[in-house]
């Protein structure tokens, strides 16, 4: 009997949300195990033995323990090609991966919890806000050339899986979104899709009850 995939996650992790969206979109049933980053549960020996980077997400699937969200997305696409998240056209695929890189390499790592913890607490919101706003300006310029209903054309791709979770932090830190019409349109479109709704941070099992009614 095939084991159900297990996603180790944290409710406010944009990296984990990317994987959750993809799993939902592809119709893959999975179990979630929360890892509380604020309590440093990711540093527990039992977790580090599975994921030496001590980060989320970690996806246990097909007998494999997979870390790094983009690598997980690629694995899901290669092993579960139904409901594809990459275009067939090579140039379009390259555009998707470029947007993914702009988000996952140039924005998210510079404003994640590990980085923010190195700064005085009163400097953290402005640092995150500046990094996200600057990065989204680049993404918006890229979308000028690629966007249809979604980031690249009219089908959901890896790019949308990565963009939408990043916007949660944009709203959380008060980024002025008025400068990003393409991003706003894509956020509005995806907000109506069940895979994105299920992956929203307020819908996760470890989201504190007092935060579950927030809208960003």
Could you give a short description of this structure?
By secondary structure, the protein is of the alpha+beta class.
Notes on the structure:
One of its GO terms (cellular component) is mitochondrion. Pfam families: GST_C_2, GST_N. Keywords: Isomerase. InterPro entries: Glutathione-S-Trfase_C-like, Glutathione-S-Trfase_C_sf, Glutathione_S-Trfase, Glutathione_S-Trfase_N, GST_Zeta, GST_Zeta_C, GST_Zeta_N, Thioredoxin-like_sf. Belongs to the GST superfamily. Zeta family. This protein is α+β, with helices and mostly antiparallel strands. The protein folds into two domains: 6-83, Glutaredoxin (3-Layer(aba) Sandwich), CATH 3.40.30.10; 90-198, Glutathione S-transferase Yfyf (Class Pi), Chain A, domain 2, CATH 1.20.1050.10. It is 46% helix and 7% strand. It has nine helices and four strands. It has helices at 14-25, 45-48, 69-79, 90-104, 113-116, 124-146, 158-172, 181-190, 194-199, and strands at 6-9, 31-34, 58-61, 64-67. A four-stranded mixed β-sheet has the order 2-1-3-4, covered by helices on one side. α1 (14-25) packs across α7. The protein is globular, with a radius of gyration of 17 Å. The model has no long low-confidence stretch (mean pLDDT 96).
